[in-house]
Design a protein that fits this description.
- The structure holds 2 protein chains of 2 kinds.
- By secondary structure, chain A is α+β, with helices and mostly antiparallel strands.
- In chain A, 27% of the residues lie in helices and 30% in strands.
- In chain A, strands 6-7-8-3-9-10 form a 6-stranded mixed sheet, sandwiched between helices. Chain A has a 6-stranded antiparallel sheet with strand order 13-12-11-14-20-21. In chain A, strands 15-19-16-17-18 form a 5-stranded antiparallel sheet.
- The longest helix of chain A has 18 residues.
- Chain B is mostly helical.
- In chain B, strands 1-2 form a two-stranded antiparallel sheet.
- In chain B, helix 1 crosses helix 12, helix 3 runs antiparallel to helix 9 and helix 7 crosses helix 9.
- In chain B, 28% of the residues are buried.
- The chains are: A alpha+beta, B mainly alpha.
- At the A-B interface, strand 6, helix 3 and helix 5 of A face helix 8, helix 9 and helix 12 of B.
């Protein structure tokens, strides 16, 4: 097991020529993956997640920067010498070998003696619950058992420094996904491997990982616990990508005391206000946006009291969708669309207003969160 | 179940007619000749299995059969490993791919008798590039007089002509292996041999079976090239079953024995192809049976 340190790491594919605006598949970045951590690498398809993963495992050599394992530079080491396990999107098994032989394969290639191989294979079979099928040909198994074998070929090597997963549950039946993910978590708790799990599914990322790394367009936008990503997305992309539905992002201006969305004043909390004033956002050319989670909005009846309340704004109701336990209310504020979650069964008023919680109202300048550097994260 | 009417037979009729005209009727003609003898004037006598017994007991048939079997065995032993090796060495991407594919396809486009003629001239000691070249190097080479030279010429010619087929089939199997298998093999620290043995060979097994069957059947039935190059000689040393058969049927006009020999020839090819197929798919069947149990 090892900590993984990426130093000024960037990658461009040789084919991507000068004609594209950004030649990088992966923009230069610095990132530390702590020893024994369970990380999820989350982002939309084509954002560079797999490129980053393949650079860590050594399948791809980065065009610039270094990869360090426990401080040792492994950039020029082969995949085999790095001692990494990787599980791919589609299960890879050696068809003609049995389940047990598949698990023994990486050990045999490393010239380990037979008795050790037998004990380790037996242990791994028990861990994966595949003892009964040890002597069957691997090709006769179904997709999730095959994927377990792919994982097992990593686990059987007790000295692997990290296990990397590249969307490993893509071809698994939905009802088995949950089960396999739970098993992965158990294995992580028991053996403490450093694990990096690539996915574009936020549920998978948030349930698997202690820390989630959100990527978009070749850059890491934020690293944090699931709660941090949800409560304080540092980038509007993180806000809209995480959560279902994602964060409402409304373009606005700043008059020195509050955010103005199409002439409507949105009250900001003190910390955000102080940071916005300190950064001089009242007279900036940066694009300003407010971000509000649909979960923090409450739809109420608009009446005389809401007109005077600075925390309430009048909105127009466009439609309601039933999401099961909640209703999704589509609203218009000024000229901009947003949505709010409303308890199932509660009536939606004709003349509606929104009650905003300033603590949950975030301000973004050029897509980045406006915050004082020393502001502690919200509990 | 009660039969309502027999109209369904009409649907099968065109197919039956086609098969009858293309296969069954010609085959039955041969069967008809094989059990009769004639002295001309369209008078035929029933002889039963006499021709078959005669053919099976004749030394001439045994020798031709042995030569043909040896030829096919040598062809398979050379072309299959060589074809796999070339396919493995071929590039997977870039412009050189199309270049290699065209180069490989070229020999396959040349008609059999042209191939025979090319090598017949190529190997001649007086004017051929190969024959004359070898002679000027002091090597005693003459395919019209030396049995070994005749065999070497025929085998090199067939390898030159048909290895491409094995290459193209194997190449198509190799390029269809997803990149992720090679990545997993690198993670598992597999050697080049282990990658071939446990990833590439299992994945190309099906196309390889087709390659083996095609090359076996073609080489076992080879006629045109040896006919053009050596004419079955020197002596009878390259008289394969096909050449022998034509000599018997056309040269000597022995219709009865030739018909009997045709049928035996046909059954041998059928039998051996079945053996190849069964042996090479037996692993698949094991796995399928295993899967069937669950």
């Amino acid at each position: 097991m090892a900590s993984i340190h990426l130093k000024n790491l960037g990658h461009r594919y040789p084919a991507a020529g000068a004609e594209s605006d950004n030649p990088y598949a992966l923009n230069p970045l610095n990132q530390v993956w702590e020893d024994g951590g369970a990380y999820a690498l989350l982002g939309p398809s084509g954002c560079g997640k797999t490129t980053l993963l393949n650079i860590i495992s050594g399948l791809l050599r980065p065009s610039e920067g270094r990869v360090l394992f426990d401080g040792e530079d492994v950039t020029d080491l082969s995949t085999e010498r790095r001692n990494i396990a990787q599980v791919f999107q589609f299960p890879v098994v050696y068809d003609t070998l049995t389940v047990a032989e598949n698990l023994a394969f990486p050990l045999r290639n490393r010239g380990i003696d037979n008795t050790t191989i037998q004990t380790r294979v037996a242990d791994t079979l028990a861990m994966l619950g595949l003892e009964a099928r040890a002597n069957e040909r691997a090709r006769s198994l179904n997709a999730d058992d095959k994927q377990k074998i792919s994982l097992g070929r990593g686990l059987v090597r007790t000295d692997v420094r990290a296990i990397l997963f590249d969307e490993p549950l893509t071809v698994i039946d939905p009802h088995l996904k949950w089960q396999l993910r739970t098993e992965l978590k158990k294995i992580h708790e028991r053996y403490g491997h450093t694990m990096i799990y690539v996915t574009h599914d936020q549920t998978e990322a948030l349930t698997f990982a202690d820390k989630v790394v959100v990527m978009n367009a070749g850059s890491i936008l934020q690293v944090g616990t699931p709660k941090e990503l949800f409560d304080r997305p540092r980038h509007t992309f993180v806000g809209t990508f995480i959560g279902s539905p994602g964060m409402n992002v409304l373009s606005c201006t700043f008059d020195g005391t509050a955010a103005i969305v199409d002439g409507v004043r949105i009250v900001l909390n003190e910390a955000t206000l102080a940071a916005a004033q300190a950064q001089g956002l009242a007279s900036t050319s940066a694009t300003l946006e407010v971000g509000i989670r649909p979960e923090s909005l409450r739809v109420i009846v608009a009446d005389a009291s809401t007109v005077d309340d600075t925390h309430c704004v009048n909105v127009e109701v466009l439609g309601v969708e039933d999401l099961g336990r909640h209703s999704l209310v589509r609203l218009r504020l000024g000229e901009q669309l947003l949505c709010a979650l409303h308890p199932e069964g509660a009536a939606i008023p004709e003349a509606a207003a929104l009650r905003l919680d300033p603590a949950c109202t975030l301000l973004y300048a050029d897509a980045l969160l406006v915050e004082a550097n020393d502001v502690p994260l919200l509990p | 179940m009660k039969v309502q009417n027999n109209k369904a037979w009409l649907m099968v009729l065109p197919m039956l007619l086609l098969v009858a005209i293309s296969a069954i009727i010609p085959l039955m003609t041969v069967v008809n000749y094989s059990v009769q003898d004639t002295f001309g004037n369209n008078e035929f006598f029933w002889v039963g299995t006499e021709w078959f017994q005669e053919i099976l007991a004749s030394e001439r048939f045994h020798n031709a059969l042995q030569r043909t079997l040896l030829f096919s065995a040598l062809i398979l032993a050379i072309e299959i490993p060589l074809g796999i090796a070339i396919a493995l060495a071929m590039p997977r991407r870039g412009i050189s791919v199309s270049f290699c594919l065209v180069l490989m396809a070229l020999p396959l486009l040349i008609p059999w008798n042209v191939v025979g003629t090319i090598w017949q001239v190529f190997g001649r000691v007086d004017i051929g590039l190969l024959g004359h070249g070898l002679a000027s190097l002091g090597i005693d080479y003459n395919y019209t007089q030396n049995t070994l030279d005749a065999w070497v010429t025929l085998i090199v010619m067939d390898v030159w002509h048909w290895t491409s087929l094995v290459v193209l089939l194997c190449y198509s199997g190799l390029v269809s292996i997803p990149e992720v298998y090679y990545q997993a093999a690198r993670i598992d620290g597999a050697s080049r041999w282990a990658i071939f043995r446990f990833i590439q060979l299992p994945k190309i097994k099906r196309v390889l079976l087709i390659a083996v069957l095609l090359r076996f059947m073609d080489s076992f039935m080879i006629y045109t090239e040896p006919f053009v190059v050596t004419g079955g000689g020197p002596g009878n040393s390259t008289t394969f079953l096909s050449i022998d058969l034509v000599q018997m049927a056309v040269g000597q006009f022995d219709l009865g024995p030739a018909a009997a020999m045709s049928l035996i020839y046909f059954l041998i090819i059928l039998l051996l192809s079945w053996v190849f197929y069964t042996v090479m798919t037996s692993l698949d069947n094991d796995a399928a049976a295993e899967q069937g149990r669950h």
